[in-house]
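Job type: complex structure
Entries:
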Amino acid sequence: MAPQLLSSGNFKSLFDSVDTFLFDCDGVIWKGDTLIDGVSQALDLIRSKGKNVVFVTNNSMKSRRQYAEKFKSLGLVSVTQEEILSSSFAAAMYLKINNFPKDKKIYVIGGEGVIEELQIAGYTGLGGPGDSEKKAEWKSNSLFEHDKNVGAVVVGLDPNINYYKLQYGTLCVRENPGCLFIATNRDAVGHMTDTQEWPGAGCMVSAMCGSTDREPIVVGKPSTFMMDFLLQKFQTETSRMCMVGDRLDTDILFGQNAGCKTLLVLSGVTSESNLLDKGNNIEPDYYTSSVSDITKLMDSP
Amino acid sequence: MAPQLLSSGNFKSLFDSVDTFLFDCDGVIWKGDTLIDGVSQALDLIRSKGKNVVFVTNNSMKSRRQYAEKFKSLGLVSVTQEEILSSSFAAAMYLKINNFPKDKKIYVIGGEGVIEELQIAGYTGLGGPGDSEKKAEWKSNSLFEHDKNVGAVVVGLDPNINYYKLQYGTLCVRENPGCLFIATNRDAVGHMTDTQEWPGAGCMVSAMCGSTDREPIVVGKPSTFMMDFLLQKFQTETSRMCMVGDRLDTDILFGQNAGCKTLLVLSGVTSESNLLDKGNNIEPDYYTSSVSDITKLMDSP
């Protein structure tokens, strides 16, 4: 069925059929460090009607703790760490669930959030921000050394990507037997600032695919890996969840893959013309301009 | 037919059937800045028998002029610029042949060689080594500006890859109407030093694919784009050429795509077990350990 524009005619039946609203963050709740207008009121209203609210973000730069701080700093003081699922957390959970040995190390191309989540899960992460200023130079008779005990490389969004990290990660994946290659997510671009889009984790992950000839295990959206945590936590069915996001190929596809209802907001990377373009084959159930529309529709007669 | 090990039994018929030997460089002629043993004698011998010698390299770090200097510095003094085809040159030729407007600019993720070849062809290259120390920071209310007059982004091997260059190239490809995305080549790794492999242009090119959701035009091997120059230059048939290389998926595939005879040398990235692995489906006509074997086989009774 073609996506329906959210309206006073269809809003109430959607709202009543949902127990848990899953929100993407970048482009839905905020753009960079700027809160999107009307988000705070809409979230308060949804909660006041007894609905659960969860934030599911592919952005792995921060840990769940750091995201809770960001919500607070933007005035969304009621959001707790337990309501946040980040792909940084998902990467650590993937290793834990798969009994990744605690004596093996993990090389990280990505932000502090991944390192912190690995540490909380009891693992040792190498690389990350600590390797941002390192140089890898081609010198005769000199060997670029890597830790043979690295058993997984986790790749996420890394604005400090460099050749040192790429060589380190590539050597681990190509030369350490059985080394896992895990991607937090593969978003092509994201609204890292309020003014424009920037290369996302898809850029760094694809770079590693290009040098290793390997495909990664993806733990973020549209993979439904994170859904297991949600189902366990809320003891609900996915059909009574609604995924609200700004990206078709991650958020909406994630919702569809999991069997949720889906609502696209046009406040992020997807425009109405992108959505309605003939070339697009990912169609949400509903779409609207912004999360703030929920407040308007709830108040409408 | 399964690849034949080069031997005194099959060498002379191969040698006599070929007018022009095409040599890859990294892993065939040199590793990093170290000449592979016996290469100089083998090249002299091939020339002394009246054969043409051409060097076809995917490594875009240098221009043809810079490669001629490298050959000289390694003692291969007879190699001229006209005998060298580099993917840096191929990128410039691709634009020239396709009448890329001289008033448009080209953003380069890659080395000085690409910038120099563009300049020789009459074009203005931006980026390259000049952007290696630049930082791209996510700041609120601040726009990362790019030149709207960039009509092509050329991506090659870049050991100084950074987020600034990736954001610049991504913005050009995504936002400048009709902007071309050209890859010098997509080698996963290469022997940039004598001791080990390093991420190749495939790494940087895939990074751009990941952020732009676009596939590039590839001008280096295994694309046969460079073959047109060779055919025009030597007025010969491709069946009387032999491509000598160390990579199956670039060199040998290039030779096969063009209809050349193919000889794999095991002095670079491909081992005999890689070659004979069941999973490999690119089979050269012949293989041998190193270019220096040509001297031994020529001298054998």
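Summary: The first helix of chain B runs from residue 11 to 16. Residues 88 and 171 of chain B are 22 Å apart (CA to CA).
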